[in-house]
Amino acid sequence: MKFLNGGWLIRDGYDVKYAANIYTANVEPKKLTLFCPFGVPIHHPGQTLGGGILTIEVTSPRPDIITTCLINLRKDRSNCPKFQLNETDPDVEITENDEAWEFTSGRLTLRIAKGETIDFQYLYDGKEIAHSGWRAKALVTDPDGQLHVSEQLDLGVGEKIYGLGERFTNFIKNGQSVEIWNEDGGTGTEQAYKNIPFYLSNKNYGLFVDTPGKVSFEIGSEKVSRVQFSLPGEEMSYSVIGGENLKGILNTYTDLTGKPPLVPEWSYGLWLSTSFTTDYDENTVMEFVDGMAERDIPLSVFHFDCRWMKELEWCNFEWDESKFPDPEGMLAKLHERGLKVCAWINSYVGQKSPLFAEGAAKGYFIKNADGSVWQWDLWQAGMAIVDFTNPEATAWYQNHLRRLMAQGVDCFKTDFGERIPTKDVRYFDGSDPELMHNYYTYLYNKAVYDVIAEVKGADEAILFARSATVGGQQFPVHWGGDCSSNYPSMAESLRAGLSFGMSGFGYWSHDIAGFEDKPTPDLFKRWTQFGLLSSHSRYHGSTEYKVPWLYGDEAVDVSREFTKLKLRLKPYLLEQAKVTHETGVPMMRAMVLEFPDDPSCEDIDTQYMLGDDLLVAPVFSEDGTARFYVPDAGGDHAGEPWVNLITGESHEPGRWYTKTYDYHTLPVLVRPGADPLNV
């Protein structure tokens, strides 16, 4: 939220009250509370009359994390959904002298200066990593009379900000305005399906705003030397996380918000989808499956998208009998071929669905303020939305999934979860609708993941999810959403996946060859290379089938070659998944995450590391040209060349390359001293 008019003035219609100084403080065993007047500093008791204060509470949920809560007027927050955090009540040290208070948790210290202004300095092992100074903490009233709590941290020279969820805009977030608000906007806009109020700075700190609400970030976009974040209401809690490097910060952040679990071994193979609105029946499915086998393209998962159910009845959780008269028999055939089965679902129920009347009668849907069922037509005619704050509604929804799994479905694609209403609606448990908008996806995906883990076992639990919020990394895998079939969209998908990985999520996928349009054979082959060198790999589309033979004989060859390459890499991927599970470091990671001390890696968003030892640079051009950077591996292998996994060609470190590749090769380089094909 921008409220300034240049460097000196306030925008018309806004009112801003800055916290001035710390008038008094309370020191408790594990809590420091500061009382700060708005406007001008208080020097004597007579100035305490007729003005408000900002209460600042400093605590620590885990070592190396210091949490600050800014409070104007205390409100009852019992109806506010909260992220499920793993707090450990760590030992902290609070000291005071004539110049400052110091609050230390682990190796992180917050030094709060005494004086005429409020000054927060964060130090990790004694080195400053973040700072909040003059006129940083404020209470802002917007033109509609809505109050917002606002905070600012300095943005230093050369400092770069990463993360904030799966964002399709520039990888470096400097200069951007970011709204943490889940929306179904495709991959070509500033909107995002997966908004995470957490960022990483290359100054080695992380910033997490602990709310599912609509946090607004201005990253050097209003005051160019500051990161500003604000939240509607009168209370905002945020945590600064310190670490030796970006990986260490991610580890600590995911200790707090949840680690990505291990996912089934079979999930790393190729997934093939029916596509979205394409017409298909059992014969079509078996033709696709047998066609892959006949062409020697190993397939691991077959996915049934929307039209396994009747139109206008999504979701009814019933197979369309005109197309699938014997679903159990069909699923058994797929299992006999060694395949797992995924089925598309969402949390919406169209009015024509037989389940609508039952859900409405039993109070299982989100309601209008007057108690009637909330409905609209912007997806399925007259659709309602399952209210997962109602335990009976959750159990009802899960029972339909149990029935499908009893038929032979192994996992689910949990689509949507972003278009959640906020105006004049109410939830079963009384939750604040504004805060439920982003939080809804957590309850939705958790409900589905939990029932799969119950029926199939925790080792077999996996989703293919589109929406997410904080903690959603515990319910993988997520894919990138509705991309177009062109190179810019392929590149924006990768940017988003790298940002997502910088936000605490361990696994990520995307629609190979694009979702919205029909790809050219050229794009199909290039995106196939990229897709099969991602943590998870799925052919999917909107109106077009994505079986390789529709795009030419060479597309079949490329699909076969790279699917088999990924299967050869499976032992390596499984080892890397253990790293992801234990540390929160993503399998597909930005170059800056792996090489934080190499300035050349700070901005790169067209290549990535697949685990510790593989550098992948997808080809984003019709002429087959790739431009990529090879870092120095350092350590015992400093200065040694990287070798292309496919061609054996050597590449000296510390330089950029521009090379042309045919469809059977691309830059996929092995780190010196590693052998990912022989783990």
UniProtKB/TrEMBL annotation:
Q: Which reaction does it catalyse?
A: Hydrolysis of terminal, non-reducing alpha-D-xylose residues with release of alpha-D-xylose
Enzyme Commission (EC) number: 3.2.1.177
Name the domain of life.
Bacteria
Query: Domain Glycosyl hydrolase family 31 C-terminal: where?
Result: 584-674
Q: Which Pfam families match?
A: Gal_mutarotas_2, Glyco_hydro_31_2nd, Glyco_hydro_31_3rd
The enzyme's first-digit EC class, named in words, is hydrolase
Residues forming the Glycoside hydrolase family 31 N-terminal domain are: 56-218
Q: Name one GO biological process term.
A: carbohydrate metabolic process
* GO MF annotations, alphabetized: alpha-D-xyloside xylohydrolase; carbohydrate binding
Q: Please state which protein family the record places this protein in.
A: Belongs to the glycosyl hydrolase 31 family.
What's the protein here called?
A: alpha-D-xyloside xylohydrolase
From which organism does this entry originate? Bifidobacterium eulemuris
What's the name of its gene? yicI
